[in-house]
């Protein structure tokens, strides 16, 4: 069974009660409700660790520098969504590296 899915990153402003679609991408392999919930928990935990603020300024500056005038065409809060995407990818890579340590070694056959 395929688990391809569209991933939507919404930014919710609790003050105004608005929700903005900041990023959408198509991903193969883990588009399940369980993974979406795990990622939500990851993001919520990071927010709590950082006192409710994410350090996205550097990413927004990078986007402005790289995109110039096109930066204004990005959806609102795109830099925040991109930062969350990077957190998600880093978490995935960290787990991959963790399990890679337990990967059985493949013996090397040396012929003479």
Break the fold down into its secondary structure elements and pairings.
Elements: E1 5-13, E2 18-27, H1 33-49, H2 57-67, H3 78-100
Antiparallel strand pairs: 1-2
Helix pairs in contact: 2-3
Written overview of the protein:
The chain contains 3 helices and 2 strands. The N and C termini lie far apart (46 Å). The chain has one domain. The chain has 112 residues and is an alpha+beta fold. It is 46% helix and 17% strand. The longest helix has 23 residues. It has a two-stranded antiparallel ribbon with strand order 1-2. It is elongated and about 65 Å long.
Features:
single chain; two-stranded antiparallel ribbon; 3 helices; 46% helix
Q: Please describe the biggest sheet, giving its number of strands, its sense, and whether it closes into a barrel.
A: 2 strands, antiparallel
Order of the strands making up the biggest sheet = 1-2
What is the mean predicted local confidence, pLDDT? Answer: 80
Report the total helices.
3
The total count of strands amounts to 2
Radius of gyration: 19 Å
Order of helices and strands: EEHHH
Question: How far from one another are the termini?
Answer: 46 Å
Low-confidence stretches: none
Number of domains: 1
Structural class call reads alpha+beta
What share of the residues does DSSP label as strand, in percent? 15-25%
Overall body shape = elongated
Amount of helix: 40-55%
């Amino acid at each position: 069974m395929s688990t391809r899915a569209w991933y939507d990153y919404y930014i919710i402003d609790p003050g105004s009660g608005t929700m903005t679609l900041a990023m959408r991408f198509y991903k193969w392999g883990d588009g399940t409700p369980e993974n979406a919930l795990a990622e939500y928990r990851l993001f919520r935990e990071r927010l709590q660790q950082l006192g409710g603020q994410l350090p996205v300024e550097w990413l927004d500056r990078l986007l402005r520098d790289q995109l110039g005038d096109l930066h204004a065409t990005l959806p609102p809060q795109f830099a925040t969504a991109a930062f969350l995407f990077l957190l998600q990818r880093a978490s995935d890579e960290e787990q991959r590296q963790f399990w890679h340590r337990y990967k059985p070694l493949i013996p090397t056959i040396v012929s003479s």
